[in-house]
Design goal:
Elements (H helix, E strand, L loop, with lengths): L2 H10 L16 E14 L5 E9 L4 E9 L4 H16 L11 H12 L3 E9 L2 E6 L4
Antiparallel strand pairs: 1-2, 1-4, 2-3, 4-5
Length: 136
């Protein structure tokens, strides 16, 4: 990731020169939020991921819930992503849906943007994980 890319992310979080250099992470806990969007990303090393932007209502913060598809966790994370989409939209994704991942994210946004969610954040071994909590 280039410095310009990092700065673009900071600007997307409304950070500007003169603001505090605080940690942008959100503490572990359960939060109510609204999905602002889903985006497919890929870095120069080939790591692929989908990123849910969730506005945390009571915290007035954004959380970027990323699902990465690389290494040993790729298959497990793909299952996680497919089940999240199933629970949020009712749609069971297939291999054909992933032929154009950017178009998939754009199409899913029609159903995801504005959807109320409950998200749980937990940290283990210096990595923060997320889980959407769905009513059964």
């Amino acid at each position: 990731m280039s410095i310009a890319d990092i700065m673009a992310e900071l600007e997307a979080q409304d950070w500007k020169a003169g603001d505090k250099e605080t940690d942008f992470s959100v503490a572990d806990g359960v939060y109510e939020g609204v999905i602002e969007g889903l985006e497919y990303k890929e870095n120069e090393k080939g790591t692929q991921w989908f990123s849910f932007t969730v506005s945390l209502i009571n915290e007035n913060k954004k959380y970027f819930a990323n699902v990465y598809f690389s290494g040993k966790m790729a298959a497990m994370n793909l299952k996680k992503f497919i089940n999240i989409i199933l629970n949020l939209t009712g749609e069971a994704l297939t291999s054909m849906d992933f032929a154009n991942k950017v178009a998939l994210a754009q199409r899913l946004n029609d159903e995801l943007i504005g959807k109320d969610v409950v998200i749980e954040l937990t940290t283990k071994k210096e990595f923060q994980n997320f889980k959407f909590i769905f009513q059964e």
